[in-house]
Amino acid sequence: MNPGLTANQGAPNEGEVPSWQAPTDTERGLYEAKMRGDWAAYFDVLATADLYHPMSRAWADANPGWVQYIATNRSPQPGPKFLVFFTDGMLPAPVPDPVFFEVDLGELAQDWPQDDAWLAINPGSPCEAFFPTTAGHRSAWRWHADRMPHPRRNQLRTLWAGGPLHGPVAHGLACGALLCVSNASLWNAMGWHGTGYVRERKRLKEWWGITSREEWLRVEEELLSGRMSSPFWGFVLEVRSALARDFGGMVEVDHWRQVTSRVIRHRAEEKEITPGGVTRTAPRSHSETEAQVAGAQRLIGRITRYEARFRADGLLAEGRFVRSVEAWDYGRASKMARWGLGARYCDLAEAEQAVLRAGRVSRINYRSWEEFSAAYILGRCLHFDEEEFGDWYGEMLNAHRILTTDPNSPWLNIPFK
Q1: Mean pLDDT throughout 139-149?
Q2: Stated pTM of the model
């Protein structure tokens, strides 16, 4: 064991058998190490974990981008002060105040904020421990942080206690599981804290332009309605789906291209019915129409190349194609509900209703988790990947494979319909 890794917890009696149902893999690892008295292993687990500390929401709002450490005493009697940190499975349900921010062991080793305070991990739980914080102790923390991977990626993580595992809420949460697996976050954590209040707000501002509850409500509604992704993608895919319905099977790419071009040109000449009678709409110029035709041809080429790669990688079965990409919106809606909760733009009940709705619209529009996954990944790739088949694709392929093979996967334990 490295020097400095001691706690004010005695080792359990020899032969004592762990019996606690830990909420997540993190708490289980901490508990088992503690039961063995193996504090080096305890810190190995701690080094891979996100650690959360409470702070005043009013203070956070008044000091954007900053965090506040608050030391507490364990009892009313005079004694050492503690800075309390929780792992993600031990966090309480989100409330308006306080909020939590997230750090990791390496950050705490580098910049411990209060020299006279001890480190308290998950106090009040079977995996609790309390550690002195001298320079020597923090050097040992640093050693563990440097050798253990953080943040984790590409892992299926489940909240075994306190999170839904079956039923409509779990189904709606599972619609966001691709991104959860990619980021190694808890797929069924309805009471979401995510990266902490400060970083959840930063995420929504930088990636979505959301800085208020009203903006969050607007974006969530667009996602749940399937209106966030490009309507042009939807149009091109719907032409092929209509042909498949009419002709009872696969559609040749040349046929798809020809019909799509014909529909675009026809729409450019359509008439509309107005209260005053039939009138011609404002005509679209020939160059504008042909530019749209050319764009559709490029898009069809991209889609067919992605689908060929999907089939080669096992994302799509032979002879199958992607009918729509609304799944990308619905999956993000499931996550947006939780991001909004973490940023306190909504409360737990509102987030749950949005998750339930994400599950309902997904079931209406898709027939299986595999079909949902291919549609989600195609939407993501059309938006981000530019046919590079880089991380935007590779991360989702890895997540898809985990979700379709891991025995604990919600996709294998929750019926899609």
Answers
A1: 95
A2: 0.91
